[in-house]
Amino acid sequence: MLSPDNHKIAPAHAMDPSDLTIGDLLDALADHTEKPLVFRYDGRPVKSGYHVTEVKAGQFSALDCGANPEAWSEIFVQLWDVDEGGPVHMAAGKFVAIIRKVADHVALDPSAKLTFEVSDGIRPMELHRAAQPALVGDTVEVELSPRPASCKPRDRWLEEQKAAGASCCGASGCC
What are the DSSP calls for 53-81, one per residue? Predict the structure, then answer.
């Protein structure tokens, strides 16, 4: 669900707070199917004629730089940022229908990490993660930001340090 005053609602079950899942996105759009869906990246909205050109689901197995095995599900939604439609962006309901049609043929894990691949057909495709949708005026906007690389062992260590600090400096105020 979206709030009417541009407040974002936290994802219910994202693996990482910075990652929106396809389930989160579809849930957020469910009550706003008639509103234009505007994706924003690089400080601007996608053109009103944008297309969803491909939806891919993948199961990945990897070894991180600390020799730790990793496994995850990820869904890629490819956006072609072109002016080939009318003067209004695609309705949220049409986007939902596209994803549902894909789900009829491809298994889409609703809790999978969601990545957007965006290109205007000239520039190379860029990988983005999505923020929670927000109502902005009479549109639903989804801010896309570049998906950064990370070092998973370092990220886990930082989380452990933060947790250790929280337990030391929590309610007791010992620090």
Answer: EEEEEEEEEEE-TTS-EEEEEEEEEEEE-
Is residue 57 included in any domain, yes or no?
A: yes
Q: Answer positive or negative: Cα dihedral of 117, 118, 120, 126.
A: negative
**In a 10 Å sphere around its CB, with 0-12 CB exposed, 13-18 middle and 19+ buried, how is residue 11 labelled?**
buried
Specify whether the CB–CB gap between 37 and 139 falls below 8 A.
yes
Would you say residue 12 lies in a domain? no
Quick: pLDDT tens for 47-91.
999 999 999 999 999 999 989 999 999 999 999 999 886 788 999
Number of domains in the chain: 1
Q: Which residues of 123-148 are buried (b: 16+ CB within 10 A; e: fewer)?
A: eeeeebbbbbbbbeeebbbbbbeebe
Instruction: Assess if residue 76 is contained within a domain.
Output: yes
Identity (one letter) of the amino acid at 52? V
Range of the domain at 104: 22-148
Amino acid at 36: P
Ramachandran assignment for 43, one of left (phi > 0), alpha (psi -120 to 50 degrees), beta (any other):
left
Structure-token pair, residue 102: 């894909």
pLDDT in tens, 11-41: 333 355 668 999 999 999 999 999 999 999 9
